[in-house]
Amino acid sequence: MTPSQRPYRARRALPRSLGSLLRVRELVAVGAAAVVLSICAGAVLTLPQEAPIEAAQTKAQLKTFVDANAQSLAVPETSAVAPVAREEFSSTGGYATIAAGGTNHDWARLVMAYAGFPQSESNIAVFTRWMRQENGVDSWWLRNNPLNNGWGSGGGSGLGSYDNLDIAAQNAAEGLHSNPGYAAIVAGFASSAPTGTIEAAIWASPWASSHYANGAHWSPAPVPVVKSPAGTW
Question: What is the pLDDT along the chain (233 residues), one digit of tens a residue?
């Protein structure tokens, strides 16, 4: 081998050594990456297992708190029970329900309902007395016109008739609200005024030309309950 060839071979040997070194470094890097990935994967896979442990710890802590702070209430057998006060209430039936009774008192309630007046005891007492002064008690349904109302009955003098007592009640309510001369009567019924106040308003009104002799032709006695014949409603 000549001296001129040696440098050439030396120059060739250096790259091979360097290549080997680079390959070793690549292998080391790949291995390190694999180790890191395996560690990360292991950590990810083990994370969900911590949730049940934390839940169990929370549950144990809650139980410890409840056991330490539990309260109880002992009531002696001789303890008295306080009565509960309940407010009374009432309801007003519909028109058909009121009419189903079929009596003179029911007709008075029906007029109150159509007129928007309270169906109070004092209002019904006055109204049934008024009916008695017009048509009596035993024939209060005469001509289906208990108040001898000329409004809508075809009889200006109050001697007209209606097809039934329900229509008569509607016209009686409408008539009271339509004539300014009945304003005091309306105010009395609307406020459930004392019976004497409402009766005085009726006597002073133009409903009856006689004005019931300013009360001389008016009885304050209670009006008995009388049912009308079939077919009048």
Answer: 444 444 444 444 444 544 554 454 555 454 555 554 555 555 444 445 556 677 778 888 888 887 888 777 776 777 676 676 655 544 556 999 999 999 999 999 999 999 999 999 999 999 999 999 999 999 999 999 999 998 877 766 667 899 999 999 999 999 999 999 999 999 999 999 999 999 999 999 999 999 999 999 999 999 999 999 999 99
CB 159 within 8 A of CB 143: yes
At 74 the three-state DSSP class reads: coil
CA 63 vs CA 60, 70, 100, 121: distances in Å? 5, 10, 66, 65
Residue 103 DSSP one-character state? B
Kindly report the pTM of this predicted structure: 0.60
Asked if 113 and 91 touch (Cβ cutoff 8 Å), the reply is no
Sequence spans of domains, the chain: 1-47, 95-215
